[in-house]
Each structure stands twice: as C-alpha cells, then as structure tokens.
C-alpha cells in the first residue's frame, strides 16, 4: 500500500464541521421528538457486535462489514444497521416487557464502500421499531410516523413507494416452482433491471399465462387500483393474504389522510433480505437517492430464538441533511462580547444575562484575536467591552 | 429550470442520433437542427426535455446521482459501471456485441502469462473469473486493437458491431460474449417523483421500439 497522506481518512469516513453539525442536530432533534410524541422510547446499543450473531442477522453483504478481532479472537463487526441489534435486545433484555414494544434510535451505522470511495461508510440513521404487533395498523403507524418525521424535519415534497415482498415471493414461487429460479427474478427486481427480468421470462419455457403474470408484475405500480390487478395474478393462499394485507394497510393510510404522497409499487424489492411483508422507501424531491426505507420483518427475531412480528423504518440522516441543506441559508451566531482585561467582569455579567435569555454568547478577549473585523463578522451582534472609560462600543 | 422538465443524459454520436430518432417517432416535438449542435446541454422545451450530452461511460453516473432523470446507455456500460438506476426498457438500438479477439496465430496452450486488454476492466474481469480463467487485465482507453499487434496483450475484449475494425487490423474473433443494445435508464427518485411523465415516455418509446423491430 502506498504511504498515507497526512490528512487522509479511512475510505468513506467524514468529519462533520460545526455548521453541518448544527443542521444535523436540528433534524435529529425534530425526528426524535416526533417519535417521542408517538410514544416511542429511545434506545442505544453498542457500536461493536459479534459477527456471528448481529453481523449475520443484519443482511448487509458480508464484504460491506467492517470486521475486527477482539482479544479472545472472536470476530466483531461495527454494526451495519440498527434493526438487528434492537432485535437482539427485544429477544433478550426486553423479552418479558409487555408487547408491543415501541423503540426509537439515532445512531451511526457502518457499511464499507467498494466503489467511489467518497461515499459515506459511516452514516447516522434515525428510526423506529415496532415489535410484537402483527396488525396492518402497525405498518400504517410506522409509515405515517415516517412521513410525520420527514415533515417535521422540513421536507415538504416527498413520496413513499409501498410494496409487499410476501406477494412477490408468492407469485414467483407459484409461477417458477423452485427457489433458484425465483431468486434470479428477485435479483433482477432488486437491481431494478426490468429489461433483464423480461429477457429472463422470454428464456424460460413458461405457459403464455404465466408469462403474462410475470410481465404484469412489472406494471403493478400506481394507486389503489393496483391492488385489484394484483389479486388477479396470484392464486396461492400466501399471495392472496399478502394482497389482503396491502389493501388493509391502504385503508389505514387513507384514514390517516396520507394517500396523496403514496404510490403502490408491487415490484419493489429492497436489499434487506429479512423483510417478509410490507416494504417501503421514501424519496425527497431534488435528491437522487432514497432518504429512508423500512418494512415488516416477521422472521428476524426468530434468529434470536424469540419469534415475533416486527416492523420499522430508518431514515438516513446524511441524505436528509443533504435534502434539507440545499434550501437553508447559513446562520449567523448570536452574540460576541469582545473584552479587554480591565472590563472582564462587566462582560462576564452581560454574558450571563444574555445566556439566561437563551442566546449563545461567545466571550473573546481582544488580544486573543488576530483580525477582529473578520472574526466579528460571524455574529449577529458584537459588543465591545474595551478600554477603561466605561463606554463600550457597540456594533451590529 | 422548470420543475417538470425531464433531463435526459445521452451519449454523443451514433446512439444519440438513433435515440433522438426514436423520440421523434414517439411524437416528441424535437427540432430538426438538433443533431448538428456541438453544445453540451440542449433544451427542447416543446418536448419538455433537456439533453445533457455526455461520454457514453458517464451516462449512468449522471442518472444515478439524479442530475439527469433518465438516460440512454449501452448494456456494456451498464455492466461495466454497475450503477444504482432503473433499467426499464431495451431500446434495441445500436445493437452490437462484446467479444474476445486475438491474432489468428493465438494459441491458448502456449500462453505463459495471459494478458487481456480492454476498455472494460470490470466486465472483462468478471467474465474471465466466471470461466475460471486467471488473466491479467490491461485497461486501455481506446485503440484496443493495437494491443495484440504490438504484443501488449494476447487477447482483447471489445465491442464488435460489424467486425470491420477487427478485420482491418488482422484480428479474429475467438468468442462472442454478450449481446449489447442501448437501454433506457431512470434515476430511482425521478422514477417516483416524475412518474407520470417518465411512465408516459417509457410507454411511448416501448411502442415505437416494438414497431421498429417488427418492421425489420
């Protein structure tokens, strides 16, 4: 390996400078208080987990995990998501708590990037998990809380796409019979390669009815009318059940009055392989990547020997910040008191008073700054306590 | 920029001309003097579109990052770049294929340190790994045919449309790898937020693509 540059950081690691930090903090605050007002309790989990447990449960590709060894030689991972650690807690420490559990988190997660190293490999996720409730109302609650979170963080123009992985699985299984074939189609859907999907359909010796069912899947996108068309192409019990669930969910969202920003897209397949039912993704206008996603994962807790249904969402704080940040102008700090030694006391009292009023106050001794004009330009108000005459100059 | 304008990323050259022709046949009012322009951004307000003219290899990048809503990119580029975009339609234009080629005297048995030159290092590496073959890949940016002639590599991986270039340089095709056509690709967010216009565009294009194929 070549010698590292002096200021180089590990691939995908970023600093957050004060201005950005402030914006990020505001967003985090807005979402956290939204989740709190819906009765979700905050939770923290360790940054390091065992590879064998949380690492494998997380469904992030193995080559995307940051791995290290502890002193006993166990493989550890930097947590690649928050859902798996929370499932671990729900199945252990919180095993005996009354269900459903409503938990919220805000924490950095780690995913190594292979291409275009500049992409963040560490980013903060804010999200919620609703554990132990299998009803469609739970899915509805999660989706509407995600929308409320987006709104409270200042994103007004957004859209949510909702699909159902249980439906996709049931349909593929009915038509294709075996899992290897179904996996190939699921992969095309995940890669969003619909051309590949169609070519694969042409390649297989399927009846024309089955071919049409698969092509139809690609067209299942739009409003509530999609539900009926979907019902027509599945026959199995699981498939029908999935559609019933989706229909219910749509009614729940209708009751919330939220269907305007919602699109049903039944071909939506996401990278997290632990999803079992409803899946959804959120998009903000003007940003090229989804800002968050979520879904139902009824089998994940089984891996921790405590099977129970669960659903949740995670928003990517870095992308939210990017989406919101584009619209915000830089903010000036409140007040700066520039003082000289003789009038220190006076300045201190003034600072105390202003801080009590909720203002941020920087106290800066005159001799400590090189360029007073440039320095004070960062503040809305600058007050000088300089000289011994008692008349501090003020400039705004 | 109008909110509802669709930004289209297109490669310069042959694909551009064929794709614009498709759009015209799909009844998008695109002015005729369009083709000769040397600008990098061309507006077509009547059609509600704006075109970004890019290097073929860069089209999926623009689309992935969302600075272009949709784009036209060859399957070769899609495989090489592996970008997170929707590949929604095979436009069936600029048909060609990827192939392995070498000098007629090439003999796999006598190869000591197999070297393959290509403009597509990822695609090439994946292909040979799939075959269980260990080769050294030499990335070149053009004039790939030169490599076997001057002894830089034994084989090359490149796009073949008519086979004329290979022939002119005294090379022969050893293996046909993958058929290539241009694809209509869409940014994941635009796919949702501008779905009305984009779905309409896909439907209209799909119709003329099918007509084109039947006519042939």
UniProtKB/TrEMBL annotation, chain A:
GO terms for cellular component: cytoplasm. GO terms for biological process: histidyl-tRNA aminoacylation; L-histidine biosynthetic process. Pathway: Amino-acid biosynthesis; L-histidine biosynthesis; L-histidine from 5-phospho-alpha-D-ribose 1-diphosphate: step 1/9. Transmembrane segments: none annotated. CDD domains: HisRS-like_core. It comes from the Bacteria. Gene3D superfamilies: 3.40.50.12590, Bira Bifunctional Protein, Domain 2 (3.30.930.10). One of its GO terms (molecular function) is histidine-tRNA ligase activity. Keywords: Amino-acid biosynthesis, Cytoplasm, Glycosyltransferase, Histidine biosynthesis, Transferase. Residues 27-324 form the Aminoacyl-transfer RNA synthetases class-II family profile domain. Heteromultimer composed of HisG and HisZ subunits. This function is generally fulfilled by the C-terminal part of HisG, which is missing in some bacteria such as this one. Belongs to the class-II aminoacyl-tRNA synthetase family. HisZ subfamily. Required for the first step of histidine biosynthesis. May allow the feedback regulation of ATP phosphoribosyltransferase activity by histidine. NCBIfam families: hisZ_biosyn_reg, PRK12292.2-4. This is ATP phosphoribosyltransferase regulatory subunit. It comes from Salipaludibacillus neizhouensis. The gene is hisZ.
Automatic annotation (TrEMBL), chain B:
Keywords: Amino-acid biosynthesis, ATP-binding, Cytoplasm, Glycosyltransferase, Histidine biosynthesis, Nucleotide-binding, Transferase. It catalyses: 1-(5-phospho-beta-D-ribosyl)-ATP + diphosphate = 5-phospho-alpha-D-ribose 1-diphosphate + ATP. Its EC number is 2.4.2.17. Catalyzes the condensation of ATP and 5-phosphoribose 1-diphosphate to form N'-(5'-phosphoribosyl)-ATP (PR-ATP). Has a crucial role in the pathway because the rate of histidine biosynthesis seems to be controlled primarily by regulation of HisG enzymatic activity. Lacks the C-terminal regulatory region which is replaced by HisZ. Belongs to the ATP phosphoribosyltransferase family. Short subfamily. This is ATP phosphoribosyltransferase. It comes from Salipaludibacillus neizhouensis. The gene is hisG.
């Amino acid at each position: 390996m070549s010698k590292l540059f002096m200021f180089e950081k590990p691939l995908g690691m970023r600093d957050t400078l004060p201005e950005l930090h402030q914006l990020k903090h505001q967003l985090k605050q807005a979402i956290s208080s939204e989740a709190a007002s819906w009765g979700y309790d905050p939770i923290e989990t360790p940054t390091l987990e065992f590879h064998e447990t949380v690492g494998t449960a997380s469904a992030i590709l193995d080559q995307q995990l940051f791995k290290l060894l502890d002193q006993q030689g166990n493989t550890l991972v930097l947590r690649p998501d928050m859902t798996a650690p929370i499932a671990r807690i729900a199945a252990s420490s919180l095993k005996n708590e009354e269900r459903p559990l409503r938990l919220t988190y805000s924490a950095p997660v780690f995913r190594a990037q292979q291409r275009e190293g500049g992409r963040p490999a560490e980013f903060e996720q804010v999200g919620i998990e609703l554990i132990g409730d299998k009803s469609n109302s739970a899915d509805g609650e999660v989706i509407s809380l995600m929308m409320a979170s987006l709104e409270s963080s200042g994103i007004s123009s957004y859209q949510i796409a909702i699909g159902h992985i249980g439906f996709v699985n049931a349909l593929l299984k009915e038509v294709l019979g075996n899992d290897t074939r179904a996996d190939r189609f699921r992969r095309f859907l995940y890669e969003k390669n619909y051309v590949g999907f169609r070519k694969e359909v042409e390649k297989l010796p399927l009846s024309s009815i089955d071919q049409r069912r698969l092509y139809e899947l690609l067209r299942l996108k739009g409003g509530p009318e999609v539900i009926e068309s979907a019902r027509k192409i599945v026959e199995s019990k699981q498939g029908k059940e999935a559609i019933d669930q989706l229909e219910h969910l749509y009614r729940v969202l209708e009751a919330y009055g939220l269907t305007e920003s919602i699109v049903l897209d039944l071909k939506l397949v996401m990278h997290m392989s632990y999803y079992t039912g409803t899946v959804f993704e959120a998009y903000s206008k003007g940003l090229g990547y989804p800002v968050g996603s979520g879904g139902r994962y009824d089998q994940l807790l089984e891996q921790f020997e405590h099977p129970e249904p669960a659903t949740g969402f995670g928003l990517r704080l870095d992308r939210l910040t990017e989406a919101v940040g584009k619209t915000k102008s830089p903010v000036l700090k409140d007040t700066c008191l520039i003082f000289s030694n003789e009038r220190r006391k006076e300045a201190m009292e003034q600072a105390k008073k202003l801080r009590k009023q909720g203002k941020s106050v920087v106290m800066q001794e005159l001799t400590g700054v090189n360029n007073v004009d440039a320095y004070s330009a960062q503040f809305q108000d600058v007050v000088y306590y300089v000289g011994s005459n008692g008349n501090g100059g003020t400039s705004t | 920029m109008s909110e509802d304008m669709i930004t289209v990323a297109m490669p310069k050259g042959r694909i551009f001309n064929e794709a614009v022709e498709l759009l015209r046949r799909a009844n998008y009012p695109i002015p005729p003097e369009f083709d000769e322009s040397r600008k990098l951004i061309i507006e077509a307000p009547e059609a509600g579109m704006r075109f970004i003219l890019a290097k073929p290899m860069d089209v999926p990048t623009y689309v992935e990052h969302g600075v272009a809503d949709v784009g036209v990119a060859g399957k070769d580029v899609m495989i090489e770049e592996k970008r997170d975009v929707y590949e929604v339609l095979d436009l069936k234009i600029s048909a060609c294929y990827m192939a392995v080629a070498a000098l007629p005297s090439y003999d796999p048995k006598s190869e000591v340190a197999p070297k393959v030159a290509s403009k597509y290092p990822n695609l090439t590496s994946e292909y040979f790994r799939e075959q269980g073959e260990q080769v050294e890949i030499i990335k070149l940016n053009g004039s790939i045919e030169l490599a076997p002639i001057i002894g830089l590599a034994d084989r090359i991986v490149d796009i073949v449309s008519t086979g004329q270039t290979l022939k002119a340089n005294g090379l022969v095709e050893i293996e046909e790898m993958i058929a290539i056509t241009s694809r209509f690709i869409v940014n994941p967010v635009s796919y949702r937020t501008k779905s009305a216009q984009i779905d309409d565009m896909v439907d209209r294009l799909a119709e003329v693509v099918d007509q084109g194929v039947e006519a042939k």
